[in-house]
Each structure stands twice: as structure tokens, then as C-alpha cells.
Amino acid sequence: MESRLTVNLEKMSQVANSALYLLVIAFFLLGHFMSFYFHFLTVTFFMLTLINVYYLYIQKHHALLSNFGFMAQIRYMIESIGPEFRQYLYMSDTEEKPFNRIERSEVYRKAKNSDSSSAFGSLSAFDHREIKLRHSMFPVEKSTLNSFELTFAQERSIPNVFTITKPFMISAMSYGALSSNAVRALARGAKKSNIPMNTGEGGYPKHHLKEGCDLIFQMGTAKFGVRNEDGTLNDAKLETIATLPEVKMIEIKLSQGAKPGKGGLLPKEKISEEISELRGVPMDKDVISPPAHKECTSPLETLKFIRRVQEISQLPVGIKLCLGRLDEFSDLIIKMTSQKIHPDYIVIDGAEGGTGAAPKPFMDDIGVPIFKALPEVQKILKTHGLRDKLKLIASGKLINAGKHFVALSLGADAVYTARGFMLAIGCIQAMQCNSNTCPVGVTSHNPKLLRGLDINQKSERVANYIHNLWHDHEEMLASMGMHNHQELSESNLYIPAHY
Amino acid sequence: MNKKIVWTLQIIVAAILLPVGIAKFIHSPGAVYVFTELGMEPAGRYIIGICEVLSGLLVLTEAFAAMGAFLGIGVMIGALIAHTTVLGFSVQGDGGKHIPPLLLVLISCCIITWIRRKQLPFIGKTF
Questions:
Q1: Domain coordinates of chain B in residue numbers?
Q2: CATH class of A132-494
Q3: pLDDT given at position A3
Q4: Residues of A at the B interface (Cβ-Cβ below 8 Å)?
Q5: Cβ(B116)–Cβ(B66) under 8 Å?
Q6: Could you read off the pLDDT of A115-157 as tens digits, one per residue?
Q7: Which end of chain B is less crowded, N or C, counting CB atoms within 10 A of the terminal residue's CB?
């Protein structure tokens, strides 16, 4: 004889469905013979029964509702709070993606200036799949470190060169992808710590400009803010932006790690009146940028376009791309050498890079990850004698000093991070950047959700994050026995054979 | 087209429910008689009055009309039960003049709720 007790959800739902009819009858009788007040319950359960009948016999969209009635809704209800529960309770510290709890809390601790030591042992993987840094037997004194300086466009001898004093910058996030408060908090923090911030491809950088920090103006494939009606470059508009005192460099975005080969995407839920005006787009449609610049049809045309932007802006001009086909990239570099036209810097965005919204296959399966791309780019640049003529910037999930050092050792001169700074201003990785419902107001334009993001308070977090990142940089550099970031090279790395 | 129909119905519902709801608060003799018969004097009279006024006000808004109509259905079903089981259709010899408006409100509320079903909180998206 079966002596185990089990919970049979199917039976339970059948009982519940039948019980509804019986309850209506029971309450009706109670209402009739005991007190008319019972009819409040009669009516309630009668209406519940009607809804249940609709689920069971009329609707055809959900098999579960057809088979089990209203009880099946419990599944959907619990499922809908699954992401929160997993994040709060069930996911281990190391298993969340894209950033696990350890990575996130490291940024939070830096941003809040709280204790940064951990206990007992590392929670990261030592399975010979992660790149590690090699320290020196003879660390140097921190006081002997040289200050960091990187000057863009010094090779081109133009009057408006631009020098950064820390090897990391705030990566491209437009007003549109981010809320106005988030943009301003980042900009104010950048101003406090004197690092530049990229405007993203969101058109005229109205909110970025409010705080007076150094800006890198990004021109996406749709050229918001500097476009003609047909999507080509409007020279006059670019010149106006380039003459703004805050704008120090111009960046031409060719592609992005999160969606290489595809243009930017801003879902219509997030297009406010202000955004539609700044970008010159309608409010009722998703804004999908073209996959490439209209001018850039071949390597040669791309170079001509870079030259044109350099001449109009009279500023250092860079390009941003996610590494795809190597033959094309080398072709572009070969043409740079032969034409004697080169951008002042190249940003290599890893395929792991973040985005406000992108189609899933592009996010998951297209593009080369940053630590694989950097050595290849470095090799091609060196082969064609271009490495000394331009700067290389790396981006893609580089949110802590360790990752920065790996990128710098693999050839980058500086790094960009976007999501690191989002975490610093309070991002909780709710993964809702595309739906205007960001619970902490970082990516939402809903005034009710923006309320919680206090610009001044969060700008302090940004400054703290930068300060503590820089602290880690100095400590690590000293422990590796070096005085300059420029000394970092691949020989400082332990790269596992299977990496 | 749907918009015009639904707003016409909403105004009809409000025009009927608001006066009868308010009547229950000002101790109208008819209402007092009915609720005495039902054994719900006076608490039940106030509760139903609140429901009717609330429903009447909600159907006059764009955002909450579905909720108001849904509530209206509930109140009208309750009223039907009262008339069929306790009161009879003719109350105090009035020849059943309450019944046509009652049915009108019930049917109107059903139509409003159906057309605006997506606006119902929580369960709205399941229809």
C-alpha cells in the first residue's frame, strides 16, 4: 500500500475549481437563511467563478489556465517575483550575470567609501580559466610612483590636445539610455574627480553639459545632434558642438560590443518629449539607428570621414568599435598607414559590453570579447607601425582595478567603464534598462522613479568610486614593482593555457 | 466609436448610481425600508451606499472606469439577489419600477468592464 503523502497540485486545482461552485451555493444559502450580509461573499465568489469559467472554457492563450483554472495564476504570480527572490535569497554570490554579487558589492563598497577588506578567502574561480596578474618580489614605495598622464592627439600636433590624468573614464551613456538625474550625478562626480565622461549617442548633450565636466562627444551611426535629414553629417552642427569649451574629444561610434553590426536602440517606452526633441525623432516608435554611418562604406571612405571630422572639429577624434572580422580590421589599419590618416584613438569594445537595449542574439553571440580582442588589435597595430601614433582604449565589463590592469597589460592605454559607474550611482542590476521602469531611477524617465536619485549624494559616490579605484591602481602598481602604468605589459599576466 | 459607446454607458451608470447611493446616506424612507427588510439596517445601507457612490464616481474617470463598473456589477448582482429572494420585484407596491434601471446598470457595467477589461488592476492583463 502506498504510504507516502504527496502534494498533487493537479488534484488541488480540480478541488478548488469545484469548490468555487459549491461556495457560491453555500454562501447563497447562508445569505438567505442566516444573514443577508453573507451575500457579500456570494457576489464575490460568483464573480470569481465567472472569471474562472472564462479561464477554463473561453480563453485559448494559456494551456495552464485552460486546464487548471484560476489556481494556475498562482504559478504566474510567483514566477513574476522570481527574479527578485533569486537575487535576494537564492542566487549564490558568484553566479549572477552579468555582474555577480561580489563584483557589485565591490563597487558599492568603493562608492560608499566603506571597508574594502574581505575574509577567509577569495570567492573567484581558481580553475585556471581566469587571467591573473603577476606581482613583483620587490614592490616599490607608493610615494615613488609617477603621476599618470595620457595625451590624445599629441602625434598630430594640433592645438587642442587633451590630457587625462587617470587611466579610466566614464564610458558612453546617452541621455535617453540614462535618466537626466543619473547623467547629472555622473557628470558632477566626474567634475569633482577630474575625469572625462562620454556623452553617448543621444544628440546634443544638454544634461551632460550642466555640470561642466570634460566631455567626449559621441557620434553614433544615426548622428543624433549633428545630422542632416538624410542621416549624413551636418558640418555646422558638429562645429557648434566642437567649440563648446567642455567638449574635449569627438568619438565616432562604428559599432558597440553589446550589438555589433546593429545600430543603437531606444525603446519607445523611454522616449519623452525632451528626448524626442533632442534627437529629432518621433515619440511613438522605437528609435533604431542604422547599422553603419552613411559615409563609411569602405575602409577608404571611413578614413576620409575621420579626416573630415578631425578637420571640422579641430579636436582629437577617436573611433569606437567592437572587433569583428580580422581581415577587415587589418585592411582598415593598412589603409591608415598608406593614407597617413588615422584616428587619435581607437576604443575596442568587448562583446561583453553593456547596453540599454539590444536584440538578444547580438548581445549574446556576436563580437569578440575584450581580453581576446585586445592582443589581436595590439598585434595588428604593431605590425603596421601604427601603435605609437594612436591611443588604445578598452571597454567591456571593466569595473574593478584588477580588470583594468589586465586590459592595460594587454595593450590598452586607458579603459572605459559604464556599468561600473551605474552601479556606483545605485544600479541594483534589476535588468529593466529597456522598459522605463528602473526601480532606482538610473535608466527611467518616470519622475516618480527619478525622485530617489539625488544628484548631489550620488555624485559623491561617483567621486568615491573613482578615488578608491585610483587607490587600488596605485597599490597594485606598487606591488608589481612599477612606477608607471605604461610599464604594464603582457609579461605581467598569468594567462591560463585554455584561456 | 467604442469610446463614445463606453462613455455614454458610463454616464448612464453614474446618473443612476450616484442618486441612489446618496439617497442611502440621507436616510431616504425607501432605502431604510428596504434595508430593514433585509436585516441590514443601518450598517448595510451605508456599505452599499458607499459602494454605489464609489462606483458612480469611478466610472466618470478615464483611468478607473473599469474598476468602477466591475464594482457596479457586484452591487447589482447583490441587488438582484435581494429582489429575487427577499423583497420581491414590487417593493411597497411600486409595481417593480426599480427593476429596469437595475438591469440597465448591470448590463451597462458588464459592457464597460468588457471593453475596458485591460484596465482592470491585477487581473486585467489575463483577458
A1: 2-126
A2: alpha beta
A3: 82
A4: 28, 31-32, 35-37, 39-40, 42-44, 46-47, 51, 54-55, 59, 65, 73
A5: yes
A6: 778 889 888 878 778 899 999 999 999 999 999 999 999 988 8
A7: N
